[in-house]
């Protein structure tokens, strides 16, 4: 795991000055790779590639980046891990290896296969920039599920790419032009959506995509990423050929596959462990790790004094059942609140999922003992783990009994927030409505009269619950969950790996009929039944909590001054984004205890805190 950044600049590219700029850019993301830095610049082409290294595989200089292919055609900077790189070495004809890093494997595979075929063949989490010295092209690519971040943009005749936005601030040609549309989407979701970044001149490479940039067209070409893998195409290709075995056979096939994937993701030249919350997903991942390990796995959890939020006792029970080497830390409210001040630095876009706080704390705990930690993210989206899927489908089925045109008339009789939901034309729109914040406030963001935006289309799926799972997999998972984990862990220079999001697992999960995943009213049926093979049922069968955080109480208590300061009329006037009357009314209602407005207020607070950190 590393950090990458760089630029292509055809005019005024002076070697010494450009290297100093590149060094500042890489230094700004030193937390992503504290072990070393590396630079490659070509004055004639105007190309600068920078890298910060967190050494995981091949700790020698042979694994350093930027790395040049043996034939001299390609230069690469790579963030992430390629889990099947040893098997790829056996498939290609190249034999003059300098080391055993996955970066070198990718380079030589690209020489032999080309980058498109290589992308189709590799398994891993990654974001990379590849300069083709022969074709004079820059290629950017991101992993299938979006585990690793990658931004790009063109500003003032300069093309940029980076793992984190803060690196771009160091280049004199970059301009911080905030996108009002991105803010409007952010306040609905709590995170920037899809290809958007918070800046209108910067985009994200969406998961499973690549971009080819020709510097000769820097002022004329429209940048259009292309997909090298598509979950939608895979599902459509299944047709009637879904998994044909019974439930027991499905669990057996899942176990074989997951063991293989976990084994591949335990490859490391540095200490490795896992997050363990005691829930189904993390417990299953640790169970598989312990099966393939020859010694106890190091596991980590945090707990809280407030029993309403404390799951540490459950994690300890799972650890005892599996025989892991477990580390637990009980954190205080002060520990939590100390992190709040650091959020705008760690998340250099506005980000309002408050579970970011415990994720940061458990990452810091793990980093004291290991450099790599496996995580259980992805199980809910793949195996129908959220109760909201079933609830949403049931609600919409009842709502849909009323003709759409009649429901649209609701705006004449009911509050705007309710009218939005009534007018939902399909279940995806209704689901998006149910899970959004700031319902019914079309003028909240100044200059944007409509806070609505397109949702992920999934009409090709017949089952309503599958349509919602598909939407979360392409939206909520990469833009919220994976962004949260990446920034939290990398702020402590900790690499996280997510076995359940290996694309073979993803494809297997989507090959299962929906009634296998939610069977007899039991969500995540294959995962739970496999876990019960290793951990007693009574230890892990309990209501789902997740990383709950008491933000509502904090805003009326220890964070009251923080909230009142950032949401004051003066602060809102300076940022000049939100309707002060709307925000003030919600703040007043929450502080008085009349209503719980913590979710909506937290989105505004996180934007305000981000603005004062990065835009002043």
Please explain how this structure is put together.
InterPro entries: Asn_synth_AEB, Asn_synthase, ASN_synthetase/amidase, AsnB_N, GATase_2_dom, Ntn_hydrolases_N, Rossmann-like_a/b/a_fold. L-glutamine binds at residue 102. This is asparagine synthase (glutamine-hydrolyzing). It contains 28 helices and 17 strands. The chain is α+β, with helices and mostly antiparallel strands. The mean pLDDT is 93. 49% of the residues are buried. It has four domains: 2-229, Aminohydrolase, N-terminal nucleophile (Ntn) domain (Glutamine Phosphoribosylpyrophosphate, subunit 1, domain 1, 4-Layer Sandwich); 232-384 and 481-540, 3-Layer(aba) Sandwich (Rossmann fold), CATH 3.40.50; 387-470, no CATH class; 551-614, no CATH class. It has a six-stranded antiparallel sheet with strand order 2-3-1-9-8-10, with helices on one face. The protein has a six-stranded antiparallel sheet with strand order 4-5-6-7-11-12, covered by helices on one side. It has a five-stranded parallel sheet with strand order 15-14-13-16-17, with helices on both faces. The chain is globular, with a radius of gyration of 24 Å. Helix 10 (333-340) crosses helix 12. The longest helix is centred in the middle third of the chain and has 19 residues, at 247-265.
